[in-house]
Amino acid sequence: MVDLNFDEALLDEMPVFYFINYINLIHDNFLKDNFNDIAPRDFTYLSNIYYHEDLSQRELADLLFVSESNVAQIIKRLEKNGYVKRDVVKDNSGKKILSLTDKGESAFNSLLNLIVEFESKLFKDYSAEDKDKFREMIHDYCERAAEY
User: pTM of whole model > 0.85?
Assistant: First the structure.
């Protein structure tokens, strides 16, 4: 196991993004260990499709700060694996609405349960108030970062 303990003086100098990146890397490894045919970044795609009704590929690209061609490539793979379907909008044949298939919803729920379990271990020594405050702060931090 890697020792992530740093000298107290260094902790004060390190940007928050350093820690966020480490959390993301650890989280990705956790997902890789628990799911064979779903890449760690796929959870972000599946969750946005799940939580945003009538989401188009373009809107998903905007939400994830990636190109529409990047979204199309990942959605094509998720569609091929039976997790996502694309439905053409009747009035606009160029626009495709994304939704999860039954298999996609099942995979999303399994992933979500694993992530909740993972998170509960991370928060086990914190009060509910601390957890709520952290969630509020990280959400605010995320919104401010998105402004840039």
Answer: no
